[in-house]
């Protein structure tokens, strides 16, 4: 097909997601999985993961369990017998000269993931979910004086052999927005399943974007490129956007797209060529001779299926249907499994409004936790304690403003709301005679504002209300104060 400068085109995007599994030991040996942002280099290495001759791999059962959790959550068909293969290629951070992966017979196939975008919901097909091992890590150094005047590289094998789950989508995404929604939704599921922390800054989840463009309205796939090792949603967006625009310009000018593997320069915001794209035969896949076929029993798979948690999208809809929450509140609460659990735990006493609890969690509790540099689940204010505070506010024992002050005290001291209210005498005052006196004093002390009100400036009421509440030290019932203020002003 001949491309023309004014021809409209659409992107075609598929994603490969590599997620390290949160096991205690590596995929094929007993070395610990360590946090590479903290651990020193090469402290978790043995002859197996460093590729020494004569060593034999042994499959990590927990890694298989975690992989099955993900595959089942994505609605995949499980292959009860899957095959590990050797993927042969040379790279300095791959000490064996090959990677143990799965190719022709992966652990699971034919899943799906429903995403939400500005255009509504869309189903993205998942081609395969398979297990493999991670590589080591290279650090490139520019060089300096003396013996190390030339550039050199440092090799850290802590990550070599860490269980890695690869999740490959079909090329079903037609915009960068859809690609980001897919990546975000998948990361959320991995975190809910507690198989991956989702901490992209530590490189435990990485995206590879396969991008091509084609004339709008056509179905034929064109040559694609693969952008490797994108470790943030922003990088995924920017790299895909750049490549879509680049390919469109090349094709519109009559050029052709070369199939290749690209890197992404985040600072320059441009892709760059790493190597021509290999096809499967270039890796010379063959069954791993040191590992038998991986056989999983159907009974074990069903036990794992039965133990899956309620997934984010189902929980989101239930929070709306069962608790009457807004989409915004439900979305914020279910974004983190621990927060959603906290919210529901606060409802267990059965004496508080779900909407009130949601507002306190999403608003003031989040704010307090952020200021303390903590998560909600780490705070001194447990779910039952928050429920106690909400009960006092909703029951009129204290007002909303006092409730905020009480929450701050609870967060600092760990004390219960009732204890703080009693000790500081914070109970809300609704006595009409007391409030009438406060309002009368307020009006007498602000004659100019009263005159402004009488002249038609009704907004001054808010000033007078705030002044009255201040005179009552914030303990007066706001509704009673407002009603009495309106009565004395003749509203």
Descriptive keywords:
nine-stranded mixed sheet; 15 helices; alpha+beta; 491 residues; elongated; Arc Repressor Mutant, subunit A
Topology:
Blueprint: E1 9-20, H1 61-73, E2 77-78, E3 81-82, E4 84-88, E5 98-102, E6 108-117, E7 120-133, E8 137-141, E9 152-156, E10 163-169, H2 176-192, E11 205-215, E12 225-230, H3 233-252, E13 260-265, E14 270-276, E15 286-287, E16 294-295, H4 298-306, H5 312-323, H6 327-334, H7 337-347, H8 354-372, H9 383-394, H10 400-413, H11 417-424, H12 432-445, H13 447-454, H14 460-471, H15 478-489
Parallel strand pairs: 12-13
Antiparallel strand pairs: 1-10, 1-11, 2-6, 3-16, 4-5, 4-15, 6-7, 7-10, 8-9, 11-12, 13-14
Helix pairs in contact: 2-3, 5-6, 6-8, 7-8, 7-9, 9-10, 12-14, 12-15, 13-14, 14-15
Domain count: the total is 3
Q: What's the total number of strands?
A: 16
Overall average residue pLDDT? 91
> For this entry, what is the oligomeric state of its chains?
single chain
Helix content: 25-40%
Q: What strand order characterises the main sheet?
A: 2-6-7-10-1-11-12-13-14
**Global Rg:** 30 Å
Task: Characterise this structure.
By secondary structure, this protein is α+β, with helices and mostly antiparallel strands. It folds into 3 domains: 9-143 and 150-304, no CATH class; 310-424, no CATH class; 432-489, Arc Repressor Mutant, subunit A. The chain contains 15 helices and 16 strands. It has helices spanning 61-73, 176-192, 233-252, 298-306, 312-323, 327-334, 337-347, 354-372, 383-394, 400-413, 417-424, 432-445, 447-454, 460-471, 478-489, and strands spanning 9-20, 77-78, 81-82, 84-88, 98-102, 108-117, 120-133, 137-141, 152-156, 163-169, 205-215, 225-230, 260-265, 270-276, 286-287, 294-295. A 9-stranded mixed sheet has the order 2-6-7-10-1-11-12-13-14. Helix 14 (460-471) packs across helix 15. The longest helix has 20 residues, at 233-252.
């Amino acid at each position: 097909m001949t491309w023309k400068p004014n021809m409209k085109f659409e992107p075609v995007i598929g994603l490969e997601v590599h997620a390290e599994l949160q096991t205690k030991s590596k995929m094929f040996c007993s070395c610990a999985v360590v946090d590479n942002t903290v651990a020193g280099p090469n402290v978790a290495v043995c002859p197996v993961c460093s590729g020494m001759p004569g060593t034999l791999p042994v499959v990590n059962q927990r890694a298989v369990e975690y992989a099955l959790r993900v595959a089942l959550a994505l609605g995949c068909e499980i292959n009860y017998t899957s095959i590990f293969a050797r993927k042969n290629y040379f790279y300095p951070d791959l000490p064996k000269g090959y990677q143990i992966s799965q190719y022709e017979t992966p652990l699971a196939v034919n899943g799906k993931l429903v995403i939400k975008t500005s255009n509504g919901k869309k189903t993205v097909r998942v081609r395969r979910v398979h297990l493999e091992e991670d590589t080591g890590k290279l650090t490139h150094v520019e060089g300096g004086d003396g013996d190390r005047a030339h550039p050199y590289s440092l090799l850290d094998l802590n990550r070599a052999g860490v269980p890695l789950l690869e999740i490959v989508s079909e090329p079903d995404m037609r915009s960068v927005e859809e690609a980001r929604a897919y990546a975000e939704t998948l990361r959320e599921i991995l975190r809910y399943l507690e198989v991956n922390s989702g901490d992209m800054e530590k490189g435990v989840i990485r995206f590879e974007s396969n991008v091509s463009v084609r004339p709008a309205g056509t179905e034929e796939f064109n040559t694609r490129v693969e952008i490797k090792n994108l470790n943030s949603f922003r990088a995924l967006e920017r790299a895909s956007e750049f490549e879509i625009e680049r390919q469109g310009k090349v094709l519109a000018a009559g050029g052709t797209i070369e199939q290749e593997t690209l890197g992404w320069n985040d600072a320059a915001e441009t892709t760059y060529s790493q190597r021509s794209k290999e096809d499967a035969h270039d890796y010379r896949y063959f069954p791993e001779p040191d590992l038998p076929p991986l056989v999983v029993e159907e009974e074990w798979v069903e036990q794992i299926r039965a133990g899956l948690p309620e997934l984010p999208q189902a929980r989101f809809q239930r929070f709306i249907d069962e608790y009457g929450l807004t989409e915004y509140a439900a979305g914020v609460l279910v974004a983190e499994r621990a927060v959603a659990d906290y919210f529901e735990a606060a409802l267990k006493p059965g004496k508080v409004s779900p909407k009130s609890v949601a507002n306190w969690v999403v608003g003031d509790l989040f704010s307090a936790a952020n200021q303390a540099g903590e998560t909600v689940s780490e705070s001194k204010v447990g779910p039952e304690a928050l429920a106690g505070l909400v009960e006092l506010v909703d029951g009129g024992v204290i007002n909303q403003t006092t409730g905020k002050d009480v929450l701050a005290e609870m967060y600092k001291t760990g004390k219960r709301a009732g204890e703080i209210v009693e000790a500081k005498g914070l109970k809300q005052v609704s006595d009409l005679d007391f409030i009438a006196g406060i309002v009368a004093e307020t009006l007498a002390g602000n004659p100019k504002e009263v005159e402004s009100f009488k002249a038609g400036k009704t907004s001054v009421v808010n000033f007078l209300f705030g002044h009255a509440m201040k005179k009552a030290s914030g303990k007066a019932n706001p509704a009673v104060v407002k009603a009495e203020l309106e009565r004395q002003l003749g509203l």
